[in-house]
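Can you give me the bound-state structure? Components:
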Amino acid sequence: GAGVSQSPSNKVTEKGKDVELRCDPISGHTALYWYRQSLGQGLEFLIYFQGNSAPDKSGLPSDRFSAERTGGSVSTLTIQRTQQEDSAVYLCASSHPADRGLNSNQPQHFGDGTRLSIL
Amino acid sequence: AQTVTQSQPEMSVQEAETVTLSCTYDTSENNYYLFWYKQPPSRQMILVIRQEAYKQQNATENRFSVNFQKAAKSFSLKISDSQLGDTAMYFCAFMKPYSGGGADGLTFGKGTHLIIQP
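Here's the bound-state model for the whole set.
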């Protein structure tokens, strides 16, 4: 597709269940980002992938959160044993790799997000 | 760590008016990037405009322009001839230069809800 695709669009689940969120970036974008948007915390950066590698996972809120990316394309964000405070919109973004010669970051293009509601 | 502050939770103006959204930030970096994103009710974050800190000239995109004051760490967005479709949440965001590793995500402000009245 032309843009970043996220699925599901909405997810409602019971506390304690595991959930998996999917992000399909724009073709050719090697950089991929996950963010969380909640009423209390605003927009928080969670994790960044360059290719299949995530150099720093310290932005993930707890060890219940994990993310992976395979084949340099689709990424999944998994939340185990969900808690009510995990309720939020989870946004994914992708970008071209940074042009190191010009020291220029490429702008990020966002998907529509997954609205996660924990009952 | 960087912080981004948007002091106006909500603003409302009449269609065709000019409106300015404020943003200040705090960083010890000398080189960085600043962005304004728009988020309509559809949830998708749309890039409005970007500014490289090493460029003195203010960025402009059609009706959208910024007033970048590096010494004051201020990055305001001006929307001229506002339109009903400009109604949305507007987020100011900061990003460090690409480092090849570490946390390379955007740091966002809390947002300003802009309402354009007919």
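A couple of observations. The mean pLDDT of chain A is 89. Chain A touches chain B through 30 residues (CB under 8 Å).
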